[in-house]
Write the structure tokens for this entry.
Amino acid sequence: MKIPFEPEYRRKYFDLLEKVFDSHFWSEGRMTEEFEAAFARFIGLEPGRAAAVANCGLGLIAVLEAVGVRGGEVIVPSNTFMATPLAAERAGARVVFADCNRDDLCLSAADLAKRITPHTRAVVVVHIGGHIAFDIDQIVEVCAAAGVTLIEDCAHPHGATWRGRAAGTFGRAGVYSFYATKTMPTGEGGIVVSSDPDLIDYVKKWRNYGKFDYVVRGLNARMNEVTAALGLVQLEHLPELLAWKRALAAKYDQIFDQKVELPDGMTSGFYKYIVFDTPLSEVTGPVFGEACHRIMGHDVDLPGTDWVVAHHACPPMYPGWEGADLAVEVLKKRLLG
């Protein structure tokens, strides 16, 4: 996979690095604060409503500890990366797996409603493939009715919106990833977003061991200034990356019949383009491989999850793919005749 980082953006990054070096702060400095403010604005929140962290997994742990899940249950979809249930375990909760819908691969609101108990402390909805969970409005309602905290795992949906609202703004908090393969990569890194300033304050203490009063017992989850500088440049670069992905997705839409069909009002960041029951000669890895409930040995029947794992595939969507146009033409000939 090629990660595009054109000379224009390299120069901007190098200029920001000069500012980092001149500041004499390689961590806990102004660059991180600027990145946090810029990302909050990007998703429609006020500056001060974001906390940059070392990675998405640690951000999830911090949020789950902030909302008090220890000793209770956290419901997560089995169709996710292992970081999601492992974060719940590390925060002291028992993981309860829920099923996903076949049409969007995301948490099923109907199945979620069946799994909430008096022991449920939180629900983590995972926005998969670059779009927001199709059931997000119903999931919000189910959690509100049960008095359960909703958290959004936003490892994938950079640039996604549902009726104008960005991922990470539907629940108590959202946690984004900037891992190397993501649409907005910084190599490593993540960010917690929330309209709740108290939660953001908790995360900022948690990421720094709880300094200075240590009421919050956290770990080192700081984002360094060098990564924050790259985050600022990649955030500026993001519209170009999204435009490239959406243009390729539009071409794929003319080829594939069995695919994730976005509802009206949904905008995807197309971390992945997802098709069903379609043989592909060139693919990226699946969104997720083996289901988490099977990896962790949970005896639970999740037919939607098992179907999705066995029936989906992803044609390449990575920006900078020089063979994209040729691949589209080959697919047209093979699938459309």
User: Anything to note?
Assistant: The chain has a mean pLDDT of 96.
